[in-house]
Each structure stands twice: as C-alpha cells, then as structure tokens.
TrEMBL record:
Residues 11-199 form the Fructose-1-6-bisphosphatase class I N-terminal domain. This is Fructose-1,6-bisphosphatase, cytosolic. Pfam families: FBPase, FBPase_C. Its main location: cytoplasm. It catalyses: beta-D-fructose 1,6-bisphosphate + H2O = beta-D-fructose 6-phosphate + phosphate. Its cofactor is Mg(2+). Belongs to the FBPase class 1 family. The gene is LOC104742140. It comes from Camelina sativa. It is an enzyme of class 3 (hydrolase). InterPro entries: FBPase_C_dom, FBPase_class-1, FBPase_N, FBPtase, Fructose_bisphosphatase_AS. It comes from the Eukaryota. The keyword Hydrolase applies. Its EC number is 3.1.3.11.
C-alpha cells in the first residue's frame, strides 16, 4: 500500500554506525558520539558553502556583517566549527587541521580516546566558481593515558581506525569507512540526516580515466611521464584513457571511487614530495581506496605504510583501481632496477 511506496527503513549514518558498533559489545559508543560531532560539522559546512555565493552577493562575506564583525573566510569558519565540534565531543585528545600550523591538544576535562586529522575545506580556492569541495578526515585511537603529543598522530596510515570525506557539490555526500568497507550517505536537507545511499562501494578493478594536472608534465619523473604517455598513446591497441581533472581532491577521488581509473599527484622537480598532505589527504583517501578494493602508492611504497615525521608532511600519491595502480607500480619498480 501507499506506505510501501517510500522506503520505511531509513538507514541514517547514526543508525548505521550504531549497527556497526553493536559488533563490538565492549564499545561504549565513543566512536558514535565522535562521528555525530563530525557529521554536525559537515552539515554546518554544507549549509555555509551553499550560501557562500549569496553571502557574497548580499555583501556579508569578506566584509563586516550586521554585528560589525569581520566575516570569516569559509575555510577558517569551517575549521573553527570542526575544532569546536571535535573538542566539545569530549572524545578527542589531539587534532591536526590543514588550517592550523600546530596540533590542538584538548584540555584534560574534555579529553577522549581519539585523535582526528582533517582538512576542513579542501579545494576551497574553487568555491567562487562553484566547483565541488570537501572535508577530509582520518581517525586514530590514542593508545595511552599520558599527556598527548604529536607522536600520537605521527603514525602510519595503516593504524587509522576510520576515514572519510564529505563532498559539497550538487548534493552533500559523506563517504565513510570504519574498516569494514566503504559506505556513502547523502544528506537529505529536509530531514537534516545523512541517509545510506551507496552501501559497500567497490571501485572497478580497472578504469579508463586518468586524473592528473597535465600542466605539471614538464616537471614529472620518468615513470609518471611513461605512464601518462601510455594512457594517451596505448601501444597495445587498447583505447586511450579519458582525462578528467577537477582540481579538487574530494571531487577527483569521489569520481575515481565510483567510476574507476587512477588519480595521480606525482612528485615533480618543483615539489619533490608532491603537493598533497600525508595525514589529512593521502592517508584518508588511501584508506578508503583500499577498503573499496583499490590501492594507493607513493611511487616508492604502499601509501598507508608511510610514517610521517611532521604533521603537514607531503607525499606523491597514485590511487584508484587496483590494476591501474599496478601498472604505475611496475614502471617505478623497473625504474628502480635501472
Ligand atoms: P593543482 C586543492 O587546492 C588541492 O589541495 C587538492 O584538493 C587538489 O587535488 C590539488 O590541490 C590540486 O592541485 O596543483 O593541480 O591545482
């Protein structure tokens, strides 16, 4: 009857995580509480990003608003919202944000067992032209009760317990993994809830899209140059790959995850460690790719095996469909031998 016309088992992200958590009887719901605060931050940023154009139109952004306060830039505002939400969750001890030079150490009264590394608004230079942007986050657990230090987040990505991103585009979509696959949730603004729309996302084993900033081609090393050449002029008679590059990591990675292919931000002569940051760009996206059946490589090793020495360290990254990344790994291995 009519009621069946609508899905009546609305699987919200909170219900989903509670179901996941019920598999660990000993857990006290801390992760669910942490996640609910991350979700709150994402909802706020989604709303602010969607109004950004209007705010500019009615002269709020960048000038003084009606209270005479200096209107904050959206990435600064987003960072403040996430830091406040994470601290007030009472479930975190160390926070690393792309926006803050130093790590944030939560005061003892609000400390919890998680450490969160995040980019509150990645790709924010694209806001004014309406290109999708996003929040990227990774979560470690604190494995001691002493004073937290940056050592608690200078860990390999293979020690992350969860990672995800929220993409602010034609719809607001949160993609999350807690180590048991990758799941996509779409914000229903009328409910203010993230609803499970893409359960158990698996990346195609091989794709026909490559995603790289060709403008850096003159600075690439041999293996990357050879690989991109192969994408454009395949020798084995296979069709050339399509190039798709948004220039906003969340948008490029989200497309790669759903359609397959490979996303590359290689090292180049100008930036020997590439451009993307290990803790809150490379690790979370690599975690998701592996959980979805893909892989992530730095040019030398599995991306999640990197051990960062500084909280804003960069690394080259090649991630996406399993077979596509295998091809570039083979070219780097060959180069190593010669
Ligand atoms: P380029 C955005 O500024 C960003 O940090 C990522 O979101 C994106 O993948 C990359 O930089 C784009 O860099 O050098 O190609 O403009």
């Amino acid at each position: 009857h009519a009621a069946d016309a609508h899905r009546t088992d609305l699987m919200t992200i909170t219900r989903f995580v509670l179901n996941e958590q019920s598999k660990y009887p000993e857990s006290r719901g801390d992760f669910t509480i942490l996640l609910s605060h991350i979700v709150l931050g994402c909802k706020f940023v989604c709303s602010a990003v969607n109004k950004a154009g209007l705010a500019k139109l009615i002269g709020l952004a960048g000038e003084t608003n009606i209270q005479g306060e200096e209107q904050k830039k959206l990435d600064v505002l987003s960072n403040d919202v996430f830091v406040n939400a994470l601290v007030s969750s009472g479930r975190t001890s160390v926070l690393v944000s792309e926006e803050d030079e130093e790590a944030t150490f939560v005061e003892p009264s609000h400390r919890g067992k998680y450490c969160v590394v995040f980019d509150p608004l990645d790709g924010s230079s694209n806001i004014d032209c309406g290109v999708s942007i996003g929040t990227i986050f990774g979560i470690y657990t604190l494995d001691h009760t002493d004073e937290p230090t940056t050592e608690d987040v200078l860990k390999p990505g293979n020690e992350m317990v969860a990672a995800g991103y929220c993409m602010y585009g034609s719809s607001c979509m949160l993609v999350l993994s807690t180590g048991t696959g990758v799941h996509g949730f779409t914000l229903d603004p009328s409910l203010g809830e993230f609803i499970l729309t893409h359960p158990d996302i698996k990346i195609p084993k091989k794709g026909n899209i490559y995603s790289v900033n060709e403008g850096n081609a003159q600075n690439w090393d041999g293996p990357t140059t050879k690989y991109v050449e192969k994408c454009k002029f395949p020798k084995d008679g296979s069709p050339a790959k399509s190039l798709r590059y948004v220039g906003s990591m969340v948008a490029d990675v989200h497309r790669t995850l759903l359609y397959g292919g490979i996303f590359l931000y290689p090292a180049d002569k100008k930036s020997p460690n590439g451009k993307l940051r290990v803790l809150y760009e490379v690790f979370p996206m690599s975690f998701l790719m592996e959980q979805a059946g893909g892989q992530a490589f730095t040019g030398q090793k599995r991306a999640l095996d990197l051990v960062p020495e500084k909280i804003h360290e960069r690394s080259p990254i090649f991630l996406g469909s399993y077979d596509d990344v295998e091809e570039i790994k083979a070219l780097y291995a060959e180069d190593e031998k010669n």
